[in-house]
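Lab meeting, item 3. Inverse folding demo.
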């Protein structure tokens, strides 16, 4: 994809199944069904490899055009308060923001934020530099219409995996975008995150928990424990808090989420270690 670094051989190996799938199916190899567990090895700089169990994803959208069309259709076909991830108040996001001590003068980016009300709540807290990135222009249009023309907010319509950050952010917030990715897309996501988050900056991420849904918006997802989600980040990040949240959808369904809040060390601190 444009502007995305080629994943290193080590990272590609890290996301390769430890045991090859049995023969059969297309191309001589049977693909694991969505929701089936597969053991993956994750390597982190300066530490031994760790084997974790994730939920594999096989039939997701692999091209930027497919992803853009899918999410545009989702948002054009539903009102912002009817989609399954809608929440009237971003309670856990704001609580973890306080845990991390993110100040109002910090630059914040909300990944996949679309029509989320997090931007409203940040502005109400006095934040002056908020960016909302989403692949769907329809989602961002709903957010812009609600917030209005506020110079404190930047709206970016972009596929995250091909996005080239032009600056650093003090907080990267992602509630429920990451869990749609799999394989080398995880490496690509990590590469963008590492380029975007400032030294000493922070990350808040949420994904479906191991007992959460296997699909969302017609797509399979990867489900994570707190340890598995933390292992996605590069070793310069330290997870300072993790939480479990059971989100109730507008239709009344329960969706368990895993949350982590992590802080990135500065180059000076890394030299001391």
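The presenter then showed the designed sequence:
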């Amino acid at each position: 994809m444009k502007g995305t670094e080629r994943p290193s051989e080590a990272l590609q190996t890290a996301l390769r199944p430890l045991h090859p799938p049995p023969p059969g199916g297309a191309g001589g190899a049977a693909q694991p069904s969505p929701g089936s567990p597969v053991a993956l090895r994750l390597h982190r700089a300066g530490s031994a490899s760790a084997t974790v169990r994730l939920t594999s994803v096989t039939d997701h959208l692999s091209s930027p055009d497919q992803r853009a069309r899918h999410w545009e259709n989702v948002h054009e076909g539903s009102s912002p308060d009817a989609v399954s991830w809608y929440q009237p108040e971003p309670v856990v996001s704001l609580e973890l923001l306080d845990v991390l001590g993110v100040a109002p003068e910090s630059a914040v980016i909300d990944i996949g934020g679309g029509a989320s009300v997090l931007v409203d709540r940040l502005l109400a807290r006095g934040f002056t530099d908020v960016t909302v990135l989403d692949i769907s222009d329809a989602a961002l249009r709903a957010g812009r219409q609600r917030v209005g023309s506020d110079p404190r907010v930047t709206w970016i319509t972009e596929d995250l995996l091909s996005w080239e950050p032009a600056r650093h952010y003090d907080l990267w917030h992602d509630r429920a975008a990451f869990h749609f990715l799999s394989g080398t897309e995880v490496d690509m996501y990590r590469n963008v995150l590492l380029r975007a988050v400032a030294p000493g900056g922070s990350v808040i991420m949420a994904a479906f928990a191991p007992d959460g849904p296997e699909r969302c918006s017609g797509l399979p997802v990867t489900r994570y424990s707190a340890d598995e989600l933390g292992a996605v980040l590069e070793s310069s990040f330290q997870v300072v808090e993790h939480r479990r949240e059971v989100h109730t959808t507008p239709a009344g369904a329960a969706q368990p989420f895993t949350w982590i809040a992590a802080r990135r060390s500065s180059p000076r601190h890394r030299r001391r270690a």
